[in-house]
Amino acid sequence: MNKSPDAIRPHGPAAKTLHWGFIAVFLYALSKQLDDLEELADRALLQYEMVFASAFLVLLVARFWYMRTRNASALPAAAPKRIRIASQIVHLGMYFCLAMIPLTGLGIGGLYWSGIQAADWMAGLLLAHEIFANTVLFLICAHIAAAFYHRKCRDGVWNSMVPFLREPRE
């Protein structure tokens, strides 16, 4: 890997805020997840979940748009093609799963609200919701592992987004 941190253009304050702020929103969503489908019988909770899922989607789309239009990859120009491909797969996979979690949640809420709680559609949406949630956790772990890999390489990628534990300069 290229060991020239000066060749990496760091992400700006808006990109860093979107990145770290979205982590906070995602952790909040994880902390308030429902234990049982029947909890949606509380109409106020069901409404809150539907509004939160919609807001989560809007924030995710805004973050995706901003990062795609304003920020190039922080990978060094000399990064191997396999690293670039892996990075794209992980990033796009995270966005896809993060979008599918609230979309399946909205489907679950819509079916529950309309009184369809025991249908095959509900079972399918619940299964998809769980698969996307588990997959995104795996992809987040891969993303974090890659960040630490880049910190070890001292190629500037870590410093481009992480405002703490700065990688040492050579």
What does this entry look like structurally?
The chain is mainly alpha-helical. The protein has one domain. Helix content is 70%, strand content 0%. The chain is built from five helices and no strands. Mean pLDDT is 86; it is low at 1-6.
The helicity comes to: over 70%
Q: Stretches where pLDDT falls below 50 for ≥5 residues?
A: 1-6
- Tell me the number of structural domains: 1
> Beta-sheet strand percentage?
under 5%
Distance between the termini: 14 Å
**So what's the overall shape?**
elongated
Largest sheet report: none
Radius of gyration: 19 Å
Number of helices: 5
Q: Report the strand count.
A: 0
What's the structural blueprint in terms of helices and strands?
Blueprint: H1 13-31, H2 43-70, H3 81-113, H4 120-153, H5 157-161
Helix pairs in contact: 1-2, 2-3, 3-4
Q: What's this entry about, in short?
A:
It is built from five helices and no strands. By secondary structure, it is an all-alpha fold.
Any descriptors?
mainly alpha, 5 helices, disordered N terminus, 170 residues
